Amino acid sequence: MALMMHQTFSSPSCPLFFRKSHFSKTRIRVSATPSHPVPTPPSHSSSPIFLPFLQEQEPTPQHQVQQKEEEEDPNDPILRFFKSRTSTQDPRFESKLSLQKNRRTSWRLASATDPDSEAEFDVEEEKEQVVLDPSTSLQGVPGEILHFARNLPENSTLGEVLGPYVGRLGERECVEVLDLMCKEGLVMGCLYFFEWMRLQEPSLVTARACSLLFPMLGTAGMGDEVMILLRNLPKTRQFRDVRVYNASISSLSSCGRYDDAWKVYEEMERNNIHPDHVTCSIMVTVMRKDGHSAKDAWEFFQRMNRKGVEWSSEVLGALLKSFCDEGLKNEALIIQSEMEKKGISSNAIVYNTLMDAYSKSNHVEEAEGLFGEMKLKGVKPTSATYNILMDAYSRRMQPRIIEDLLLEMQEMGLEPNVKSYTCLISAYGRQKRMSEMAADAFLRMKKVGIRPTSHSYTALIHAYSISGWHEKAYSAFENMKREGIKPSIETYTALLDAFRRAGDTQTLMKIWKLMLSDKIEGTRVTFNILLDGFAKQGHYMEARDVVFEFGKIGFQPTVMTYNMLMNAYARGGQHSRLPQLLKEMMSLNLKPDSITYSTMIYAYVRVRDFKRAFFYHKQMVKSGQIPDSQSYQKLRSILDVKAATKNRRDKSAILGIINSNMGLLKPKKGKKDEFWKNKKKQKRIKSFAQD
Questions:
Q1: C-alpha–C-alpha distance, residues 200 and 595, integer Å
Q2: Are 495 and 511 in contact (CB under 8 A)?
Q3: pLDDT at residue 32 in the model
Q4: Residue 686: its pLDDT value, please?
Q5: I need a surface site. Which of 328, 359, 550, 688 has the fewest CB within 10 A?
Q6: Mean pLDDT lowest for which of 160-169, 229-238, 579-588?
Q7: Residue 20: pLDDT band by 50, 70, 90 thresholds?
Q8: In angstroms, rounded to a whole number, what is the distance separating the alpha carbons of residues 581 and 60?
């Protein structure tokens, strides 16, 4: 990252600077529980009834990249920016991290002065899923319309059956109906009811109705409908509301229409609609999802600050997420600390974002420290908070700690969900001889009424694979399909690995064909597992078929591919094929590594072809591909013994040639007679007789 800070904070904390590094594109969502069930996107084959009449035939302008409003001083540090803001809340002490030797860490900090001032709204906050029971009967006109929407006759729209309700509904009742239908996921019902509202005299469409409908359409992937409805809203002051534009930008971001989201924001600026903190947080999120850097997000945040946009926990959470996704965890912590000095309290989402970033980088102690600070400040942990810690300890293969976290979670009144139990299954399943405990955790999950997901079954299959129970792995796979859970590529990869370890190539081929029939494309890991499974069992033609099939989907052979092939040929006694594979690597511009040369050297040592072994050792040293010290020491000890034996024979032969040329060789004795074997024995007999 090109942004550098040349000054430091006046506080005793460390200076803030940005460094250039390679950042992961993985997007981690800390709290992913939606506020309503995700509706099924409607089929695009059926043509809409009223939307084509609203759509104007105008060429859409191409998205222009926004320019900076003014030139900024490159030496302007973040501290100067924070000092320009007035402080509304100043903690008495700064937090200091004190790591301990055990798994828990402690944070020495002051108690929160005003824990109740935390903002409740957040764009990624975990919410309880609200689903109305279809059997519930609602009273009044809104309940009757909801009943019609639930039981709409085929080939009819909601607007066609609402004739008797003309004049009986006001704006408030229409918003209530939209809210009820959005919670039940009735996407097309909401859309046609909104059109019915627009056609009434006077129109019943309000800004609140748009704020409800637009996010619903975005979740369903109906970005075109959002743009059409937004363009055809009345040009009155009521609809030049920042909440309407926030809802439209958020909906377009939900369906991946980031360019259109920028267009709506630019239109918002042209109409002189002042953005608020929700606009800032949504746009920072859009920039992150669209691939913009944390530097761009920071510059946009500064622009919003110059426009007078208030700071909030939503803005803080979105900004820290951009920094954490690029690995700038320390900078994110400093920004959080400085914002807290200005009165912006961190909520559970902010702590979850920071904890997730540290746990993903295997800094579990720091994540535990944030967890302790979170509780000391009075911020209640959520299920996602505990799941982040469980996932970290799952990767460390510490199931006992996960069991303790589950108990602590239940003591706080939080129910473990499927992610919690999946972490426990995975922690047991990553260790050998712990598959029974993984299966027990899986049964505990089902006993409490939690339905497994594909990730849960994948963790269970991997546990069976590690312990060599490939039959149980296949049985779990069949149970998964019987329950209607679609296997993922990770599930197939874990199942293939189980039969690769067992050496069952027939079932390996069967699972591969089943995966192809399900139209699931493999990954590089799947490719390597199949190749290794066939090659080690001597099925070289099938291994070559794997290379060809995966080459068609873009997975070209790598150095690891040829290393596995060489190892398989060497184990099968076909060491004569190794030079040919080495030539194939050279033709594909693949540079052999230390594993390639070591495999060939051991292969020729095994068949006592020391001449070729010494030759490829010389090539390995010449190319600089030396393995690690322990592996190379083992290899050299074998080669040194063979070299010493060979040198002794060569030395004896050279000395014989020299002595022969100089005439120093002793003359050979004459031919032995037929009684030479008995000469010593006869001498011993005579000496014994004399005695």
A1: 76
A2: yes
A3: 36
A4: 55
A5: 688
A6: 160-169
A7: very low
A8: 55
- Taking alpha carbons only, the member of 180, 192, 189, 182 closest to residue 215 is 182
CA–CA distance, 386 with 404 (Å, rounded to integer): 11
Helices (H) and strands (E) in the chain — how many of each?
31, 2
Count the Cβ atoms, other than its own, within 10 Å of residue 479. 13
pLDDT score, position 44: 36
Taking the C-alpha atoms of residue 567 and residue 603, their distance in angstroms, rounded to an integer, is 8
**Rounded Cα gap, residues 281 and 648, in angstroms:** 78
Count of CA atoms in the C-beta half-sphere (13 A) of 52: 4
d(CA 631, CA 594): 10
CB-count exposure of residue 129 (10 Å: 0-12, 13-18, 19+): exposed
Which of 75-89, 112-126, 549-563, 650-664 has maximum average pLDDT?
549-563
- CA distances to 258, 350, 351 from 344, rounded to whole Å, are 28, 11, 13
Give the pLDDT confidence score for residue 568 in this predicted structure: 87
Residue 553 half-sphere exposure, CB side, CA atoms within 13 Å?
Answer: 13
- Report how far residue 148's alpha carbon sits from residue 152's, in angstroms, rounded to the nearest whole number: 6
Tokens, residue 668: 């050979």
User: Tokens 């399909």 identify what position?
Assistant: 481
Strand 106-108 and strand 96-98: pairing?
antiparallel
pLDDT of residue 42: 38
- Around Cβ 397, how many Cβ atoms within 10 Å? 13
Q: Per-residue pLDDT tens for 543-571?
A: 888 888 888 888 888 899 888 888 888 88
196 closest CA partner among 163, 234, 237:
163
Q: What is the mean pLDDT of residues 389-395?
A: 93
The token duo for 643 is 């070299």
Q: How far apart are CA 525 and CA 564, in angstroms?
A: 13
d(CA 563, CA 409): 47
Tokens coding 62: 């191409």
